[in-house]
C-alpha cells in the first residue's frame, strides 16, 4: 500500500488523478468511500477523469461504457474491464495497492 493523497484532496463526489508506480490512477469519492481505478478506459484509452459517476458506476466520457467502481466490469461489454485497485484509509492518508491489477 502506498500513500497517494490526503482525504481532504478528494471531496465527496470528487475525483483526483494521482501517479502511482508510473501509471495514472483516478481516485473517486462516493459518499466517503474512496475507489481507485485506472485513468484509462479499456475500450479505446480515453482518460476517465471527466467520467460521470452514478450509482456505483463510472461512465466513460467518450462512448459511455459503464464500469463498476468495485470490480471494473462492464455489463454491456464484458470484454472491457477497467482496472481497479484496493484502497485503504489510514488516518488522513489514502493508500492504494497497485502491485497487481485487480480486475
Ligand atoms: S473509449 Fe471509453 S467507452 Fe470508448
Notes on the structure:
The protein is an all-beta fold. It has one domain: Rieske [2Fe-2S] iron-sulphur domain (Rieske Iron-sulfur Protein, 3-layer Sandwich), CATH 2.102.10.10. The protein is 0% helix and 43% strand. It has strands at residues 2-6, 15-20, 23-30, 33-38, 52-54, 57-59, 66-68, 84-85, 87-90, 93-96. It has a four-stranded antiparallel β-sheet, with no helix packed on it. Strand 9 and strand 10 form a beta hairpin. The chain is globular and about 35 Å long. The relative contact order is 0.24. The model has no long low-confidence stretch (mean pLDDT 94). Residues 41, 43-44, 46, 60, 62-63, 65 line the site of FE2/S2 (inorganic) cluster.
Topology:
Elements: E1 2-6, E2 15-20, E3 23-30, E4 33-38, E5 52-54, E6 57-59, E7 66-68, E8 84-85, E9 87-90, E10 93-96
Antiparallel strand pairs: 1-10, 2-3, 3-4, 4-8, 5-6, 6-7, 9-10
FE2/S2 (inorganic) cluster (FES) is lined by residues 41, 43-44, 46, 60, 62-63, 65.
> How many helical stretches?
0
Based on Cα principal axes, name the global outline.
globular
CATH homolog superfamily: Rieske [2Fe-2S] iron-sulphur domain
Overall mean pLDDT: 94
Assign the structural class, choosing from mainly alpha, mainly beta, alpha/beta, alpha+beta, or little secondary structure. Answer: mainly beta
CATH architecture: 3-layer Sandwich
The proportion of residues forming helix, as a percent range, comes to: under 10%
Order of strands, widest sheet: 2-3-4-8
- Over the alpha carbons, how many angstroms does the gyration radius reach? 13 Å
Kindly report how far apart the N and C termini lie. Answer: 17 Å
Amino acid at each position: 500500500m502506498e500513500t497517494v493523497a490526503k482525504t481532504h484532496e478528494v471531496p465527496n463526489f470528487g475525483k483526483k488523478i494521482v501517479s502511482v508506480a508510473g501509471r495514472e490512477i483516478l481516485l473517486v469519492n462516493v459518499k466517503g468511500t474512496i475507489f481507485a481505478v485506472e485513468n484509462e478506459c479499456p475500450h479505446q484509452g480515453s482518460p476517465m477523469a471527466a467520467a460521470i459517476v452514478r450509482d456505483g458506476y463510472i461512465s466513460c466520457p467518450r462512448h459511455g461504457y459503464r464500469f463498476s467502481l468495485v470490480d471494473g466490469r462492464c455489463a454491456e461489454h464484458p470484454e472491457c474491464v477497467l482496472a481497479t485497485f484496493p484502497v485503504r484509509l489510514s488516518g488522513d492518508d489514502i493508500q492504494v495497492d497497485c502491485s497487481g491489477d485487480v480486475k
